[in-house]
Amino acid sequence: MSSSASICSTKYCNAGWSEVLMSMSPYGFANLGIAFGLGLSVVGAAWGIWLTGSSLVGAAVKAPRIRSKNLISVIFCEATAIYGVIMAIILANKVKKPVDLEDIYYLSDDWDFPGFYFSGHGMFSAGLSVGLTNVASGISVGIAGSSCAIADAQDPSLFVKILIVEIFASALGIFGIIVGIIQSNSCNMPISILSEN
């Protein structure tokens, strides 16, 4: 095959990933941000529950008394998924359909394109920030919860001490959703030509 045959020469050909990403609609970026924020938060929660749950069940064989009070670790892990749901609701309420342009497929030249792209990329980054923070939070809560269950099975006085560490690990998810809310505050999709927001 000649080298000229492998190069796409039509107007629908993308030169690379940078052109694909630059050609993507702000609605696509906003919805990807919602999906990543929610999806990664659920992955973080599931990973944390897997880590803490397996240790909890294993340690409960030696000390059945730890089963009920160590469920707090599973609740902390589940909170990371709830943070993702909250952020997804906030971001989904910011995605608006243009009202003046219902019967056409292309936006006019006097449309606020910089604001449109700023909002889409801002929502993408807010969702990604929350999702990745909640993955880290879920894993750290899971590891701390696993240690809490094993330590509690050995010595009941260690439960409260390790629970403090677990609370701080769970705070990472709260920090993530605060950062996501701050990032998304300035993201208001323009809905009409004359609109400033």
TrEMBL record:
Q: Which Gene3D superfamilies match?
A: lithium bound rotor ring of v- atpase
Q: How does it sit in the membrane?
A: Multi-pass membrane protein
Record has Transmembrane helix as a keyword: yes
The record ties this protein, via Pfam families, to: ATP-synt_C
Q: List the InterPro entries.
A: ATPase_proteolipid_c-like_dom (IPR002379), ATPase_proteolipid_csu (IPR000245), F/V-ATP_Csub_sf (IPR035921)
The answer to whether keyword Hydrolase applies is: no
Q: Name one GO molecular function term.
A: proton-transporting ATPase activity, rotational mechanism
- Reading the lineage from the top rank, the first entry is Eukaryota
- Looking at the UniProt entry, the stretches that span the membrane are 27-50, 71-92, 123-146, 158-182
The record's keywords, sorted A to Z, are: Hydrogen ion transport, Ion transport, Membrane, Transmembrane, Transmembrane helix, Transport
List the subcellular locations: Membrane
Q: What is stated as this protein's family in its record?
A: Belongs to the V-ATPase proteolipid subunit family.
Protein's name in the database: V-ATPase proteolipid subunit C-like domain-containing protein
Q: Which organism is it from?
A: Proboscia inermis
